[in-house]
Amino acid sequence: MTASTPLFVQEALETPERIANQLEENDHTTDKLGSHLRLVSPKFIYIVGRGSSDHAGSFAKYLFEIETGIPVVGATPSVTSAYGSSIKLDGALVLMISQSGRSQDVIDQARMAKLSGAYVVGLVNDENSPLAEECDVLLPLKAGGQKVIGATKTVLTTLSALLQLVAKWTHNKELSSALYKLPDLMEQACQSEPIITNAMLNSIEHCAVLGRGFGYAIAKEITMKLMGNCCIHAEPFSSAEFAHGAVGMIDKKLGLLSVDLRDEAFAKHQQQIQEFIDAGLTVHKLKQPIFNCPERLAPLTLLQRFYLDIANVAIERGIDPDRPPGMQKMIKTF
Question: What is the pLDDT of residue 4?
């Protein structure tokens, strides 16, 4: 890493060390929280987040429904902040996900949730933020300061915090053991070959990012970075849903990117992607950088590599990855 290395890349490269520190420092808190959740057995899980935090919430939906069997609902914060309505959350576990902890509508959701009888857990990077003070339990992300606009390490530390929480909650010894390897796997991802290049995107005017399950969850984050950091129009789709209508956009020079994670959904996802290829469509595959990787950790390794690559894509397109056009460091929503 040199003085000319973009801050975006420097922050992304901090992730392995940040995750190692987080897993150690949050170990006792997640032990206690896991015991509490087994005792109270929430009726459902309600997740609040904006932007990249919302994408982490999509990851959490798959994670908690698969590992706990408890239904997960994504919040619509405007119901409270714009329409002034409350949600009946008695008996729910509410997860507040935020880097800054300062968006007013997210803070309002936390207050509403507590008044409604929910148990509120905050996954927040700024431990002194107003949102952190509103939560019953805080799981700090421990990502350190974010100096650039595009979130990288805060997204990845959110995912690792979610993994640690579900492992403790469900007594999943296999996942708990795998998490000890996560910092090293993330470091390996940093050293791996690129999974996306500007050459893959040069002839694409519009882009669909396809994934299945956890792959679809991180496709949302990939899409945001393609648009925000590289000025490439992109939309995320589940590969299972894409054929139900959006595939008709192919004639409009729609490029296809496939998020390839080798987990339980891999075979079904590949079957759908192969149908598109057999129909004569060009699909660029974003493959997980570490082939033999525990299934639940693979999405993190893919995102880690993608963040490093997307900075190079931006540079080759004449865009400063630290100062993408039109973006602010913190987006305030009310």
Answer: 85
